[in-house]
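If you are new to this repository, start here. Below is one unmodified record pulled from the training split, so you can see the exact layout before writing a loader.
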Amino acid sequence: MSQTIRRVAIIGGNRIPFVRSNTAYMGVSNQDMLTATLEGLSRRYGLADKAVGEVVGGAVMKHSKDFNLVRESLLGTSMSPTIPCVDIQQACGTGLQAVNMVANKIALGQIDSGVACGSDTTSDAPIGVSEALRQVLIKVNAAKTGGDRVKALLGLRPWHIGISIPRNGEPRTGLSMGEHTEITAKEWQIPRDEQDKIAAASHQNLAAAYERGFFDDLITEFAGVSTDSILRPDTSYEKLAKLKPAFDKESGEGTLTAGNSSTLTDGASAVLLASEEWADQNKLPVKAWLTIVETAAVDFVGGAGSVKEGLLLAPAYAVPKMLAKTGLTLQDFDYYEIHEAFAAQVLATLKAWEDDDFCRNRLGLDTSLGSIDRSKLNVNGSSIAAGHPFAATGARIVATLAKMLEEKGQGRGLISICAAGGQGVTAILERP
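And here is the target side for that same chain:
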């Protein structure tokens, strides 16, 4: 049986405002945020009476109560309860991988439309007990009699009492993402002033986008919040330059600060994808087309027989593979959406593509990929200013870039998202 590969259309997106952790969304769950986001998408595109094929998404920071998160969120909306749902997780790449999963099913004809989404909160983070206490409680729960329960409890010791709070760190190294990125910044000799300029531009560009109404059809109000709370329109390079290092505080060589790094954030986002036929049948204009998605991973630990790489540099490997498959060069884009986990990580990725030695010896290329026009980078702001709810970043960027291409009338955009565990997800959107 022959298989026809269909084009995948991006119809549009919706998100709630992203807010700093432990502020406006205190006491709000992933399900609450994702339900509101999906309902906003449903109302914007009239999905209540439409047969959507599937909803795929997830969260990185999940409670046990978040079992079947996407499905439970959908059931709280006006969308049909007959829509199947899937939970996935790939750290910060979750949202874009959800887009990839939905798009592949549309391309293969398994579904005609679908929603990719993600939600994350660090205000409602799961807090566990110590492992020793957990083992005691398991024995108590498994006990058949009161005496057995007492016997199990007698095994409890004062030092067993404790809690386990999730931390933004790598289990293999014990280092946080910021500490890893400090290492990368030093290896690639990324200056502090360049990082602060990236951060200042992120705030200024996001503020300008809000001012001209760019987000009016991309964001729905939630919990009394109508704009991203991390945004500081008056942020300047001069103000950022005064901040002290946040991760390397002792050496005198630390360059990452709270200002040029993304902060812990709460929020959710979603994007609607469809076949060309479904979009036509439902009279929904296509903003852009998803051309390709590419994923890569690097060894950031230093295993036998492999080259140790920076934790967040996997997109530097994914993009060349994607360019090779499409026959494009790095310069063949009107927009570059490079997720700002840290300004230093953005700059290191760009510098790697410009470096002949890296491109030859690490990527296997004949020469470097070259530089990009920085005026095309994150032109409506990115994660430093908007915030970074881990699983929500992908759908935010896809919906934003699709609208940018729609406004331009034609063009091509590159998406690059780094993720924990030495992974990265990249994509190309086009509007002929």
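Two things worth knowing about this chain: The radius of gyration is 22 Å. The mean pLDDT is 94.
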